[in-house]
Specification:
Helices cover about 45% and strands about 15% of the residues. It is of the alpha+beta class and about 80 residues long. The strands form two sheets. Strands 1-4 form a two-stranded parallel ribbon. The longest helix has 18 residues.
């Protein structure tokens, strides 16, 4: 099965998109730094924590997907490859 592709930079931009996201990850990483004296997280780990990815951030996305009434708005992460 062919996988959809997602650029790492686009994933980061989507993941930390607004003030609430920045606060959440800031607290998460600060708490880890306090507990572990280091922050050890990879982009792949953050990706794997997601249940889905919205289709509009995929490389293969185009406006025709929006016109397809049967098209999903989200894709399971198992169908996506980070590039």
């Amino acid at each position: 099965m062919n996988k959809y592709t997602l650029k790492k930079q686009r994933f980061i931009e989507w993941l930390i998109d607004d003030h609430e996201d920045k606060v959440y990850f800031g607290r998460r990483f600060c708490n880890e730094l306090i507990r572990e004296h280091k922050i050890n997280v990879t982009l792949e780990e953050l990706f794997n924590e997601r249940d889905y990815i919205p289709i509009y951030i995929l490389e293969e996305y185009d406006d025709e997907w929006e016109l397809d009434e049967d098209a999903e708005e989200e894709i399971d992460i198992d169908l996506i490859k980070l590039i």
